[in-house]
Every structure is written in structure tokens, then in C-alpha cells.
Specification:
Number of helices of chain B: 1
Order of helices and strands of chain B: HEEEEEEEEE
Shape of chain A: globular
Radius of gyration of chain B: 23 Å
Oligomer: heterodimer
Largest sheet of chain B: 5 strands, mixed
Helix content of chain B: 10-25%
Shape of chain B: elongated
Chain lengths: ~400, ~140
């Protein structure tokens, strides 16, 4: 009786041992068919440029590098109202139009280059082409469309430049930024949550068929979800730059390799490595860090940062002189302290004329002397309530001359 | 031979279960199990304008039952901890209405926008309601 019970199981064991390698082979084949291999990206930390923001000797006002300046008052249309300068998190230029993303009012408003309101991309809601939480927009030059990254639920909406919904697909991760890689086919996402797919990685690179291809950058330790949103991806001058959360470095992204390009040094205001949440919030005013805005051309590297308020700075890449909005030698510097973007071959900053009204009135004479066309707009459009854009070019540097 | 058939069947069963569990549709819409009706919200977006800091900020949205069955408001979920949502009643008779109130904590200065999703026994559920304004000192 005992024998007849045990015997089949012994046979089974024998059978398993005999065919075990084939089982493993089949299982691994099944796994490889079901999931693509996700590569771990490379991070190179050598040969980057230091930007010494804390050096008072080398600091100049930003106004010293402004070549031309134009003020665009965004129309006061009831459907065109934007929330506040700090909540404008991306401005794109395409087809002679400006696409302005408002992270607080969750809207993408489209204006022409004179500030006239044209229409909005998408709307608040839960249907196709609608969103409750929009995080980022990116221009897909190759397909002449705008991609909108949304959360709750996580999805990517494709709009034509005229606002038609072309496509919508759900995303298996929660991202706060998206940019298109230089070759125009792959997407970089700033991932915010840990999932089996994304793991504890901050940057996700997806293939043209929307499969996750590579992961880079571990989430910083001790940093909660809200602070992780301080990370930023910035397309500039045909390249992609990534600033990890609470990091002073900007990495140039190429495929699944990130190469440190610039590091901002705030001296005694630098954040400690792996700061605790209590430390961050308790001593918030004593720390400085890059935030929301970066651009880089042949002559200058410009970036926005937090230092008891919002500021901007430019590095002259040839002389290494720093131009800061916080420099007090020119009062008009205060006009240039919001996040900056590239549009139509120019640099663009948001300006809240309503909030800065007392400052503007105190400095009208100085504005008239330095920027007569801006002065003209300010005095003729005194009732303007919506946000404005400062569109400017920076002085070209002639390399055969030494800049003092 | 019979063990081979038996084991092949077990392996097939296990793989089928794994594939089913991985790909099974996730149904979060509680309304599907109830009788569906239709509704209308008075306004998707209410702009409360400028309000003083620490003052009471609330927006009232009216949900009308435009169908022939009872409208069940099963959940009102705000998008942030700074907002509280209240539904006047959970069951709305045909041709009747209910008020849903969003209250915002006005301690933070500056523009704000807050929303909530209302889960109802209707085909176009959930419904989004949004309030916005500007907190001034």
C-alpha cells in the first residue's frame, strides 16, 4: 500500500530532474518574450564646469548682457487668465504661437507673438483630451504636435498645434516632466514613484514604441514625493539637460548616458548631501538650489534658482563672469528673476506686472532710459492684469576680444 | 506517459493563471453594478475671485438628477488635503438636486485651484468639479 503511494512521487521526482533544464529554458524564453530587457544607464561625473554663484567679485547685473528686450502683455481675455509667474512651468514656441503651461490652473493657453489669446489645448475633465492634473508639455517637431503629460490618471495626450486631440495613451508610471530625445523618437520622463517597472529611478527613457528602455539616477534618500518634483528636464540648444532633485548639477543626456555638464556652487548656501526633511523645511531660507529653468547656448548658461525667493543667473562661458538678478547695482535686475525658456530664437521670462506694479512705477524713468519700447507698453496698457512675457536676446560675445 | 500529460496540464494551468492575473481588467467603477441614470452639474468651474487670507472659502456645485432612476453620490474625493468636500445628500430622486460644497483652506497666499471627483451611478462618472481663486493678505 505504502509502496504504491510513494512510487508515483519518486517517478515524478525523476521526471522533474530529467526535464528540469528544459523547464528553465522554456521559462526564461517565456520571460524574455514577455518583458524587454531594461538597461541601467551610465552616469559620468568628470570634466564639468563649475558655476560660482557665491563669488561676489565676479558678479554683474543681468541687465549688462541684455541686447534687445520686448514686453508681450498676454491678453486679459476671461479664458486666457493665468495664475502666477511661479506656476508657469513651460513655454513652447511653434507655428508662430506661444504655448503656455500653467501648473496651478492646469491649462495650456495658446497666444500669438503679440500676446493675443487664440485658444486652449485640452480642458479640465476626465474624458479623452481632458486632464485634472497636467505636469508638462513638449513639442514634437517631427510630427508637428504637442505632447501633454498628465497625472491622475497618468497619460500622454498628443495634440495638433491647433488643439485637435490626435492620440491618448496611458502611462505605467507617474512622471512630472517629459522631453523628446535629440533624435526625435525617444522620450525622457522624470519619474516620481517607485513601481516594479520604474523601480527607484528618477529618469526613464522609452523607445519609439513606448517600451521602457533604460533607467537612470536613483531617487535621492530622505526626500519625499513633493521635493522630488524639484527635478527638471530642460531641452536647450538641441541638447537635453537634467537637474536631479535638490542637486546642483545639470547633466547632459545622450541616449542612456548622463554626463555632468555644469555644477552650480552656492558656497555656504549649498544643500548638504542627503538632507533630512526636517532640515530642509526648518532651514529652508539658508539653502539655495536650482529650480525650474535652464538654458545653454554658445555664449551663456542661464538658470533659475531658489535663494529666499526666485532668482536667475547667467554664466558667460568664455570669461566665467556671473550675471545675477539679485545683483543690486542695477535696480532693473528685478525684472529678470523668473524661470526662463527659449522661444523663436530668443529667451523668454514671465513677468507679473500687477505684482511688480509698485516697483515698476518707482522705476519708470530708468525703464524709459534703458528699454523705451517696454516703457511705452507699460504706460499705454496700465490696466493690464494677466501675466506678461519678457522676450530678450543676450549680447553676442566676439571671441577675438577679451571681455572685461 | 500519464505523468507527462498530468504535468503538462499543471504547467499549462499555472501559466494560464499567471497570464490571467497579470492581464485581468481592473474595474474601479462601482457604478457598473448599480442602475445607471443621468445627471447635470450646474458648473464645472467656479472662480471665487479674490478672498482674504484665513477667510472661509467655499464653492457650491449643484448636481441635478436628469434621469428616471435614483442618483447615488457614492464618493466625493478632493485632489488635495487643503480641500474638504461635502455632499448635502447621498441619494437624489429623479428631477431633484443636491448641493456639493468644496471648502478650501485659505492659509496660503496667492492663486489656488482645487478640484474633486464625484462618483455617481451614471455612465459619465466620475464628474469633475473645480474651484479657483486668489488668496490676498
Amino acid at each position: 500500500m505504502g509502496c504504491s503511494f510513494v512510487r508515483p512521487w519518486l517517478d515524478l521526482k525523476h521526471w522533474f530532474m530529467k526535464y528540469l533544464p528544459i523547464y528553465f529554458l522554456l521559462l526564461s524564453l517565456l520571460e524574455s518574450c514577455g518583458e524587454r530587457k531594461i538597461r541601467e544607464g551610465l552616469i559620468e561625473e568628470t570634466n564639468f564646469t563649475q558655476i560660482q554663484v557665491d563669488s561676489p567679485a565676479a558678479s554683474e547685473p543681468i541687465t549688462a548682457i541684455i541686447d534687445s528686450l520686448e514686453l508681450i502683455n498676454l491678453e486679459d481675455h476671461e479664458n486666457a487668465v493665468l495664475s502666477e509667474a511661479a506656476s508657469i512651468s513651460r513655454i513652447l514656441y511653434f507655428d508662430k504661437k506661444l504655448f503656455v503651461l500653467d501648473n496651478r490652473y492646469m491649462s495650456i493657453k495658446v497666444f500669438d507673438l503679440h500676446g493675443k489669446y487664440l485658444y486652449a489645448l485640452g480642458d479640465l475633465g476626465i474624458g479623452r483630451g481632458e486632464f485634472t492634473n497636467i505636469q508638462d508639455i513638449v513639442l514634437d517637431q517631427k510630427h508637428a504636435s504637442i505632447l501633454a503629460l498628465c497625472n491622475t490618471p497618468s497619460k500622454l495626450i498628443t495634440f495638433s498645434s491647433t488643439g485637435e486631440v490626435l492620440d491618448e495613451k496611458s502611462l505605467p508610471f507617474f512622471a512630472s516632466n517629459v522631453v523628446i530625445a535629440s533624435n526625435g523618437d525617444k522620450l525622457y520622463y522624470v519619474n516620481q514613484n517607485n513601481s516594479p517597472l520604474s523601480q527607484h529611478k528618477n529618469i526613464l527613457l522609452t523607445s519609439p514604441d513606448d517600451e521602457l528602455e533604460s533607467r537612470l539616477f536613483d531617487f535621492p534618500k530622505n526626500v519625499n514625493g513633493m521635493l522630488r518634483f524639484t527635478a527638471g528636464l530642460y531641452p536647450s540648444g538641441g541638447k537635453i539637460y537634467f537637474n536631479p532633485p535638490l542637486s546642483n548639477k545639470f547633466y547632459e543626456m545622450a541616449g542612456d548616458t548622463a554626463k555632468a555638464g555644469f555644477e552650480v556652487n552656492f558656497g555656504s548656501h549649498n544643500l548638504p548631501s542627503n538632507p533630512s526633511i526636517t532640515d530642509l523645511f526648518g532651514k529652508q531660507k539658508s539653502y539655495s538650489f536650482p529650480l525650474n529653468g535652464f538654458l545653454c547656448d554658445d555664449d551663456y548658461v542661464g538658470f533659475s534658482y531658489f535663494e529666499s525667493g526666485y532668482h536667475t543667473a547667467f554664466l558667460n562661458r568664455h570669461t566665467h563672469v556671473i550675471y545675477k538678478s539679485s545683483n543690486v547695482s542695477d535696480s532693473l535686475n528685478k525684472l529678470f528673476c523668473n524661470a526662463m525658456y527659449e522661444c523663436a530664437g530668443k529667451k523668454v521670462m514671465i513677468l507679473d506686472c500687477k505684482k511688480l506694479s509698485p516697483f515698476i512705477h518707482r522705476n519708470l524713468a530708468a525703464i524709459k532710459e534703458s528699454y523705451p519700447n517696454v516703457h511705452q507698453k507699460l504706460v499705454t496698457d496700465t490696466m493690464h492684469k494677466n501675466l506678461s512675457l519678457l522676450m530678450f536676446t543676450t549680447k553676442k560675445i566676439r571671441l577675438n576680444h577679451t571681455i572685461p | 506517459m500519464k505523468y507527462t500529460v498530468f504535468l503538462a496540464a499543471v504547467v499549462f494551468l499555472v501559466i494560464s493563471i499567471i497570464v490571467y492575473v497579470r492581464n485581468r481588467p481592473i474595474n474601479n467603477d462601482a457604478s457598473e453594478s448599480k442602475e445607471l441614470t443621468s445627471y447635470m452639474v450646474s458648473s464645472k468651474l467656479i472662480d471665487v475671485g479674490e478672498v482674504k487670507q484665513r477667510s472661509k472659502i467655499e464653492a457650491r456645485f449643484t448636481v441635478y438628477n436628469t434621469g428616471s432612476k435614483q442618483l447615488l453620490i457614492s464618493k466625493v474625493a478632493p485632489d488635495c488635503h487643503c480641500t474638504v468636500a461635502d455632499a448635502e445628500k447621498a441619494v437624489v430622486a429623479p428631477n431633484d438636486s443636491a448641493v456639493i460644497i468644496l471648502r478650501y483652506d485659505s492659509t496660503r497666499l496667492g492663486p489656488f485651484q482645487s478640484s474633486a471627483l464625484i462618483t455617481l451611478n451614471a455612465k459619465s462618472s466620475p464628474a469633475l468639479i473645480v474651484m479657483r481663486g486668489n488668496v490676498i493678505p
